[in-house]
Design a protein that fits this description.
It is built from 16 helices and 16 strands. The chain is α/β, with parallel strands linked by helices. The chain has 3 domains: about 60 residues, Winged helix-like DNA-binding domain superfamily/Winged helix DNA-binding domain (Arc Repressor Mutant, subunit A, Orthogonal Bundle), CATH 1.10.10.10; about 150 residues, Aspartate Aminotransferase, domain 1 (Alpha-Beta Complex), CATH 3.90.1150; about 240 residues, Type I PLP-dependent aspartate aminotransferase-like (Major domain) (Aspartate Aminotransferase, domain 2), CATH 3.40.640.10. α15 crosses α16. The longest helix is centred in the last third of the chain and has 27 residues. It is globular, with a radius of gyration of 25 Å. The termini are far apart. The structure holds pyridoxal-5'-phosphate (PLP). Pyridoxal-5'-phosphate (PLP) binds next to α8.
Length: about 475
C-alpha cells in the first residue's frame, strides 16, 4: 500500500471514530505533514483520495473538511444493549447518548446551555486568570475560597437564613457535596432513606458507598408521605435521609413549608442526618425562593447541598455544602479524595458574583425556563394527552410523563433515539422498576418549528407502538 493510501486509511478510521466530526476542518497540509512526518505531496494525495471517496470536501482557501454526509460511529449505539445492567452502567449509557451534539437533548439533566451568561463568565474567567498566583492553590484548599463562601452565605442571609461561611465547603458540583455528605454521616451497610423515584445520583452514591436503601414513594400530586417516612424510620435503623424538597428530580414537586417543618421534626426525633439536594431552588417561577428543609432544622445535623450548575453554568463544576456540625469531617474527606476544586474557577465565580449582575441573569433564566416549560407542556398535553398523563408543576424545567402501566418507556426511549431525540426513561430513577412506564423530559430547550416537526414524528411513532396494545 502506498504511503498516501496508508495515511488516507488512518484518517478514514479517525473520522469513523468521531475524532473528526462532519463539517470539521482537518489540519492544513503543512500541519498534517509536520504532525505525521509524511511529505506535503503524500498528505495532499491522501486528502484528494478521501475527497474522491466523498469522505472529505475541499473548499477554496479554507482547506479540507469532513463531508457533512459522512457516517460517524455514535455513542448512542451503546445504549441499545443496556437494558439489563446495573443503575450505574445504564446511567452512563444514557448520559453518553445525551452528549451527541446532533441530539435534541430532552434527556439531558442540565438546562439549555445557551441560557448561561457565556460572555460574562468568560470575562470573569479571564479576570481570574490574571489574579491566579503560585500560592493560590494553598489559599483555596478546603473549605474553599473564603470570598466565595462568604458570597454564598450572604445570598442565604439576604433572605433570612443564617448559614456561617465557616459551615460552607466548596465542592466539585453538588454531586461531590452530596457524596461527601453521605460519606461522613454513614458507614458501609447503613440504611439510608431515599425517595422513589429519585435522582439517579442518589442511587449511584449508595451503590458506591455500600449503603442500603429504604425507599418512600413520592408522586407529583402528593409529594412525599410523612406517615410513610415515619414508618420507614421505625422499620430500619436509618442513619441518613437524602432528599429534595424543592423541584424534586424527576417528578418536580416542592414541599409546602409545613411539610418541610414536620419532616425536620421527624428526622430530629429519630436522630437521622439530612442530606438535602437543593440544586434547583433558584429556578422557582413564583414570587419567592423556597426554603430548604434545613431552614427548619436546629440541631446542626443537616447538610444542605447545592451548586451553580443549573442556575449559572454547568461546566465550572462548582457546588457547596452547608454542612452544620459535619463541616470539618467533610473537609477531611475532601482532602483525601479531590484535595480541592479548581482554583481559577473558584476565583472566576467570585469575580462573576461581585462584578456581574447574577440577579438579573437569574430573573431572565427563570422567565425563559417558565415560558419554554409551558410551551413544551402545551405541546405534549395536546399531542400526547390521549395516551399519557403529562404532569405540570411550576418551577425547574422537567416534565414527568406517565404512560399506561403496561407501556415500556424503554421502547419509546429507543424510538426517540432513532429520531435523534434523547429522553430520560423512568428506569433511571428507581431501584424497583416501578416507573418503567414513565419518562422525564427536559423542557428548557426552545420548541422551534423544526423541533416541533421532529416531535410530531416521535408522536406518530409512539402512537404506532401503542396501537399494539
Ligand atoms: C437532582 C440533582 N442533584 C445533583 C445534581 C448534580 O449537580 P452538579 O452538576 O452540580 O454536580 C444533578 C444533576 O443533574 C441533579 O439533577
Amino acid at each position: 500500500m502506498a504511503k498516501y493510501e496508508q495515511l488516507a486509511d488512518r484518517l478514514a478510521i479517525q473520522i469513523k471514530q468521531g475524532i473528526w466530526q462532519p463539517g470539521e476542518k482537518l489540519p492544513s497540509l503543512r500541519k498534517q505533514s509536520s504532525l505525521t512526518g509524511y511529505s506535503l505531496m503524500t498528505v495532499l494525495h491522501a486528502y484528494q483520495l478521501l475527497e474522491s471517496k466523498g469522505v472529505l470536501s475541499a473548499r477554496e482557501r479554507s482547506g479540507y473538511r469532513v463531508a457533512e454526509s459522512v457516517e460517524v460511529s455514535s455513542t448512542a449505539n451503546a445504549v441499545q444493549s443496556a437494558e439489563s445492567v446495573s443503575v450505574n452502567d445504564f446511567v452512563f449509557d444514557v448520559l453518553q447518548a445525551s452528549r451527541d451534539p446532533h441530539m435534541f437533548s430532552l434527556g439531558f439533566a442540565y438546562p439549555d446551555p445557551s441560557l448561561y451568561p457565556r460572555q460574562h463568565l468568560n470575562k470573569s474567567l479571564a479576570a481570574a486568570a490574571k489574579q491566579t498566583t503560585v500560592t493560590s492553590a494553598l489559599d483555596n484548599l478546603p473549605p474553599g475560597n473564603q470570598a466565595l463562601r462568604k458570597l454564598i452565605a450572604q445570598r442565604y442571609a439576604a433572605r433570612g437564613m443564617h448559614i456561617s461561611p465557616d459551615e460552607i465547603v466548596i465542592t466539585a458540583g453538588a454531586l461531590e457535596a452530596l457524596s461527601l455528605s453521605l460519606q461522613v454521616v454513614t458507614r458501609p451497610g447503613d440504611w439510608v432513606l431515599i425517595e422513589s423515584p429519585t435522582f439517579y445520583g442518589a442511587m449511584q452514591a449508595l451503590e458506591r458507598l455500600g449503603l442500603r436503601a429504604v425507599t418512600v414513594d413520592v408522586t407529583p400530586e402528593n409529594e412525599i408521605n410523612l406517615a410513610a417516612v415515619e414508618r420507614a424510620l421505625q422499620s430500619k435503623p436509618v442513619k441518613a435521609c437524602w432528599l429534595m424538597s424543592n423541584f424534586q428530580n424527576p417528578v418536580g414537586y416542592s414541599l409546602p413549608d409545613e411539610k418541610k417543618q414536620a419532616l425536620a421534626g421527624l428526622l430530629k426525633k429519630y436522630d437521622v442526618a439530612l442530606v438535602e439536594d437543593d440544586v434547583y431552588a433558584e429556578l422557582y417561577s413564583g414570587e419567592e425562593l423556597p426554603w430548604p428543609v434545613k431552614h427548619f432544622c436546629d440541631d446542626g445535623n443537616s447538610l444542605l447541598c447545592s451548586s451553580f450548575s443549573k442556575s449559572l453554568v454547568a461546566g465550572f463544576r462548582i457546588g457547596w455544602v452547608a454542612a452544620g456540625k459535619h463541616a470539618n469531617a467533610i473537609q477531611k474527606q475532601q482532602l483525601m479524595s479531590t484535595i480541592s476544586t479548581s482554583v481559577p474557577v473558584q476565583l472566576a465565580l467570585v469575580d462573576y458574583l461581585e462584578t456581574k449582575n447574577y440577579e438579573k441573569h437569574l430573573h431572565q433564566l427563570r422567565r425563559a425556563l417558565h415560558q419554554r416549560k409551558l410551551a413544551m407542556y402545551h405541546f405534549l398535553h395536546e399531542h400526547w394527552g390521549r395516551f399519557a398523563k403529562v404532569h405540570y408543576l411550576q418551577g425547574g424545567y422537567f416534565l414527568w410523563i406517565e404512560f399506561c402501566p403496561n407501556t415500556d418507556a424503554m421502547v419509546i426511549y429507543k424510538i426517540a433515539q432513532s429520531l435523534k431525540i434523547s429522553l430520560a426513561p423512568g428506569k433511571l430513577f428507581s431501584l424497583s422498576g416501578e416507573y418503567n412506564h414513565c419518562l422525564r423530559i427536559n423542557a428548557s430547550f426552545e420548541l422551534t418549528p423544526s423541533r416541533r416537526q421532529l416531535m410530531n414524528k416521535l408522536t406518530n411513532k409512539i402512537k404506532q407502538y401503542l396501537e399494539q396494545f
